[in-house]
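ingest -> validate -> predict -> emit
validate: passed (alphabet ok, no gaps, 316 aa)
predict: started
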Amino acid sequence: MEVALSLVLPIFGIIAIGYAGARLKLISQSGVDGLDTYVFTFAMPVLLFRNLAGTAFPSALPWGLWISYYGAMLAVWAAGSLIALYILRRPAADSVMLGFGCGQGNTIMLGLPIILTGFGPEAGTPVFLILAFHGIILFTIATFLLELTRARSGEEAPSFAAILKEGLRNTARNPVIIGIACGVIYGQLGVPLPGIVDTSLEMVARSAIPCALFVLGAMLTRYSIRRSVGAASITAFFKLTVHPALVFVMTQYVFGLEPLWVTAATLLAAMPTGVYSSILANRYQAAPGAASSTVVLSTGVSLVTLTILLGWFLAA
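emit:
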């Protein structure tokens, strides 16, 4: 457990510094947005590219990994939505959004730093394989369901084909996905990065994790935990416990994946609900209060759940 704490506390320490900096107005919100742009447009894609450029991938497609992670994600999404709809008596759009928070995790800002720091670059392979389809699957389904459920006045809902086309277009433009794709392609060439280029990329890549954690902390000041705490607690419970438990069972006992892949997939599933959940909720006015509460609540509670989970995996 001491090893897990020595890993988690510095990470959450940087998040706390970012939170305090934004709360005390030592950094402006426009400054936070600028740093966020740097992280997602430059630093994180470079980190992903550099890691993948020297990574050996499995010869066969990892269907077991994808089915385990995304099957569990869709299961908790459906369960959370049904609970919100039939037990909490929420409107359909709110139910979709609350279910979305059960499966959408903070994979980039928090998942990558924790997994790569705790288990090394080798753990990045299953993470990158999951992230390659994370955005297109999550956001296409969420947008489709929200478009179907939101109130309209004579306006026809867009077709699934149109939503899928938009999702594919946004995915193709996503710098993180571009970094993953370029890293995979370059890695297959078998040509090492030139020394000067590699040194420059390494310098940028080293800034990705601390900057991402700082931005995450600063962005938490934009969300409140006091709105719809009951619904947020249910969503956070599914995200932090049920989702990783299902992924662990699937990867370990159903598909029998290698231990490092089981660890990486389970930890990725254990990440708290990401800030995009609140952004999407505000865009569609679908449970925005509960979504913002879930982001803050799940991030805070994950300090405990991730420490326990990391301690267990590191001791195994």
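The chain has one domain: 2-310.
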